[in-house]
Amino acid sequence: MKTIKKILLPTSTAGSLPKPSWLATPETLWSDWKLHGQELIEGKHDALRVALQEQVNSGLDIVSDGEQTRQHFVTTFIEYLTGVDFENRKVVKIRDRYDASVPTVVGPVSREKSVFVEDAKFLRQQTKQPIKWALPGPMTMIDTLYDDYYKSRETLAWEFAKILNQEAKELEAAGVDIIQFDEPAFNVFFDDVNEWGIASLERAIEGLKCETAVHICYGYGIKANTDWKKTLGSQWRQYEQILPKLKNSDIDIISLECHNSRVPVDLLELIRGKKVMVGVIDVATNTIETPEEVANTLREALKYVDADKLYPCTNCGMAPLSREVARGKLQALSAGTAIVRKELTN
Ligand SMILES: [Zn+2]
Fold this sequence. Notes:
Blueprint: H1 2-6, H2 37-57, H3 75-78, E1 81-94, E2 98-111, H4 117-126, E3 132-136, H5 138-142, E4 146-147, H6 153-173, E5 178-182, H7 190-204, E6 211-216, H8 223-230, H9 238-247, E7 253-257, E8 275-279, H10 291-301, E9 310-313, H11 323-345
Parallel strand pairs: 2-4, 3-5, 5-6, 6-7, 7-8, 8-9
Antiparallel strand pairs: 1-2
Residues 14, 184, 215, 217, 316-317 line the site of zinc ion.
């Protein structure tokens, strides 16, 4: 982390990047793998190298695997656990928004083997830059399952938090600098977030010495999400419900959606003093931001986030975009950040 501290406004993405067409169907979320067995393992690592190179070539400071190692940000993790039956599926409403066929919890959940640790070691070997690794958060995990065993959202979240903590400790040992938990469910179930959601996230990071982040967004640019956003009115004040408690949590960095969204930027004042990954790239449009647009969003955010705590980022993952658009957006992120860095140091 020493390297990160030296960089003013260190850039990164929220997570996913497009997959190459030989690995999965392009511009399609959660598409099936085109390879199997050993070929799939090698294919994922090759795609990881490409995604890393895209980030490095675009000048990003904190890099990731671009989520080339997973099909879905939640279910790929759950596939490695015992106690979950993937054959016995039920239809549930995800984040109170759209129906999805999900696996069923049928017994005690546990992690018999690590999930992403070998992939993280592989990424660590490829670069000396700081690396960030994303895991699903406990509340978003339970929202992507049907629970036929614990019959309590809170109890199941706590069990997942313990499992995530085991995985996170091994990722830290593998050399990961920032472990990020994706919690889009935090933007929906405010009472649960404040009652036990943040507490279970703190259980997931217990004992970690590396930096930790929580990513809370309005989702990929898929129809279910864009339709939902239309119902949220002219100001999206969801963050207002959860930021006060997150400010006092043990989580180091909070990753939020800001650019092109109706989130009032002054809500960032609620977490003044925390590190913030500020989303300055809209992932729900193919229009590539200009560097000046990125710089403007950063200038706005700087009114509420101290410069040494601001991490320019994307609003969410870029998996559904074309590689060309994603590349353009990465370059805009770097170029826009460079403008503001210059202003701050002159
Ligand atoms: Zn997101």
